[in-house]
Amino acid sequence: MSVFKRISALIAVLFVVVGFGSISSHEEEAGVEYVDVEKLDSNSDELDGSKLEILMVQQEVKFLSGLIRRYKPKKILEVGVCFGGSSAVILNSIKDDEEAKLYSIDINGEEWVGRVVQASFPELAKTGKWKLFKGNIAAKYLDEIGDGIDFVFLDTMHMNPGEFLDFLMMLPYLKEGAVIVIHDVMLQHLVGGLDHKHAEYLRAMCKKFIQAYFGITDAASLQVQTKFGYPIVSTNCTLLGTIRGKKLIPSYDLPNIGAVKLEKGQRKCLWEYFNLLILPWFYMPGDEHIGIMESHFKKHYDERYVATFKESVAFHKECFAAAEKLAERKDEVKTEEKPVEKRGGWRRLIPWLD
Asked: Which of 5, 21, 164, 348 is the most buried (most CB within 10 A)?
């Protein structure tokens, strides 16, 4: 082989090596860590999921528990409690850490909120490591909880503007480098592939959920949710991708949970975070909650961002009012409904149109 050919071959090999190197290092450069949940130091096996109302699969429980054991947070915030299954997972993960404490918030004030902890782990509830706030939004309680929060589990509405607003409320209280775990980040995809029976069940559950939390019976948001069910709830997926920081993603296919370890300088990202509020809203918070949030944002954010919030609220209120007027007229104006033509990939991509 001539010297020229040898040099050409060497250059080709170098291109291949550099190419593979750039591909393999791309995920690291992008700030993504694919976490093997089976290798995490999780104590989730101590929980009997069959007897607890933990609304997560076991891999998600291991992921949440394992990240707590890895980062050893001292001040944990949980927003979205429901029956308290996730509260039990968190408390079980910090039971041996004398300094760690969990603060849980749920907008619902019913007695059943957090009942799993009281029923299945009464010893954890009595240690002073858990404080439950219920009956209002996060902004109502964050001053009492205080700053220095270094770990968050976020699992509330799953529809715009729910978790967008939750994140904006809690951000000023988060410690630099805090870890935020977000549940149901793939819910819109997973439900789309369910059979008709399960899809109808989730639509019914969604309807009851909105009615219970907001007293909505005939608003446009309820009509939309009842018709389409959960496939439109991409809020958590959007938020997970928007928050700046290192992404922590379970290594199995299509995980419905993920986390972000916040990077420094979150104040530089406020435009991106408030800009999420211009996306379509699928429910309208009550005036009391809007007032609490506005006061909260005035305390922590520049006026330009408060203005973005106020303008978004006003715009979406107009949209809901227009949609409700249109709904009132539907009985007066008879229109011929044309069947949706479903063909090729669209039927597979949007199965809830059936």
From this structure: 164
